[in-house]
Specification:
Elements (H helix, E strand, L loop, with lengths): L8 E6 L4 H9 L6 E7 L4 H10 L3 E2 L11 E4 L10 H10 L3 E5 L4 H14 L3 E4 L6 H16 L2 E9 L3 H12 L6 E2 L10 E8 L2 E8 L14 E7 L2 E5 L6 E5 L18 H4 L9 E2 L8 H26 L8 H17 L31
Parallel strand pairs: 1-2, 1-4, 2-3, 4-5, 5-6, 7-10
Antiparallel strand pairs: 7-11, 8-9, 9-10, 11-12, 12-13, 13-14
Length: about 375
């Protein structure tokens, strides 16, 4: 039986903070794909309000879930974040409920959940979230195509600490894994908003700069999400931001001349410099980026549904829960090594000011402090 013949997968969302993204995604899924069957949470005012908003039951114990629940999205912190998400995932798996668990997950907890899943005949998947977003999928696809045509020379990456797990998974998707993987010792991190880490990913030299600072419980204090550049002898492919654009920047190849002139005469430029008419850069898939509202409701929501589609296909295929587990385990181990190397995040400062738009950066008088901007 294929996934389309199964009918809608009935899903419970566990956790209502970031779980709101999952709830919104499931509410906008087309009929026959997924069905929101309830919310599992502690019963806070937020959870009560969300259950009323989506018209579904609110449960506070796994034992209360009805027998027709197919899967659960566990959007609750695991031990690395001071939560009990892995414990909750194991309890759901033991009831035969398939689990999609939001990252990050400690490698030991991940391995334990996979063992429980196999014993219970259920599927367990870690959702690294951002690799499923359309702009990141576009970048990954273009990067894989680039590596079919050219050898990689370097990887340059920039991310916030709380999205470092999924950055590693993005790289694993580009290179079909992380090995050979290595990190050089990290020193001099105190007081620096960006911690620089040198290493190797899939045998390619890696420079990673991480914003290792945050305010617990408030991701909006981070100054960035992801920026990744794959460098080759032909040019560089960059994901400028998690939500795009994806930019291809070909390298400059100047013609050679017997007299040392590298600027050809206009009359023979096309003959001596056939690549001279090419652009210095171009966007893969267009230069636009979504608004934050569209990103959170549409791009993020479709990313959740894409991840759930993967879970549903594994259920339909009756796949061994351990099949394909090497990549998430390798990512979790590399993430553990990385976060141990850079140390505990420092408090984010200063507090965020009022928003700026691109119009504020246009030529003209800059806003003064008296305007509050």
């Amino acid at each position: 039986m294929n996934a389309a013949e199964q009918g809608p997968m009935r899903i419970v969302v566990c956790g209502t903070r970031f779980g709101q993204v999952y709830l919104s995604a499931l509410a906008r899924a087309e009929p026959g794909r997924f069905e929101l069957a309830g919310i599992l949470a502690r019963g806070s005012a937020r959870s009560v309000a969300l259950a009323e908003r989506y018209g579904v039951p609110l449960y506070d114990k796994v034992e209360q879930l009805p027998g027709d629940v197919d899967a659960a999205c566990v959007v609750v912190s695991t031990a690395v974040g001071g939560g009990r998400g892995a414990e909750l995932a194991r309890a759901l798996l033991e009831r035969g409920i398939h689990v999609l668990q939001e990252h990050p997950v400690h490698p030991d907890e991940l391995a334990d959940c996979l063992r429980v899943a196999r014993r219970a005949g259920a599927q367990y998947q870690v959702n690294t979230f951002y690799p499923h977003l359309e702009p990141v999928r576009r970048f990954t696809s273009a990067a894989r195509r680039l590596l079919m045509l050219r050898e990689p020379v370097f990887v340059d990456a920039l991310c916030a600490v709380q999205v470092s797990f999924d950055l590693l998974d993005i790289l694993a998707g580009i290179f079909d894994g992380l090995r050979p993987w290595a990190l050089a010792p990290v020193t001099g991190t105190a007081g620096r908003p960006l911690v620089s880490v040198d290493g190797t990913v899939a045998g390619v030299p890696l420079t990673l700069r991480m914003e290792n600072r945050m305010q617990p419980g408030d991701d909006s204090t981070s100054l960035l999400l992801h920026r990744i550049t794959i460098g080759t002898d032909a040019g560089n492919l960059m994901l400028a931001n998690t939500h795009g654009p994806v930019i291809w920047s070909p390298v400059l190849r100047m013609p050679s001349g017997t007299t040392g002139q590298f600027l050809p005469d206009p009359s023979d430029a096309a003959e001596r410099w056939p690549h001279g008419s090419g652009t210095t850069g171009a966007c893969v898939g267009g230069p636009g980026t979504p608004t934050w509202a569209a990103a959170m409701h549409e791009v993020w929501g479709e990313g959740v549904l894409t991840a759930l589609d993967g879970l549903r296909e594994r259920v339909a295929a009756g796949a061994d829960p351990l099949q394909g587990s090497q990549r998430p385990l390798a990512v979790a181990r590399a993430w553990k090594e990385l976060t141990e190397a850079v140390g505990y995040p420092e408090p984010a400062a200063p507090d965020g000011g009022s928003p700026l738009s691109v119009a504020d950066l246009a030529p003209g008088p800059a806003p003064g402090p008296e305007t509050g901007q």
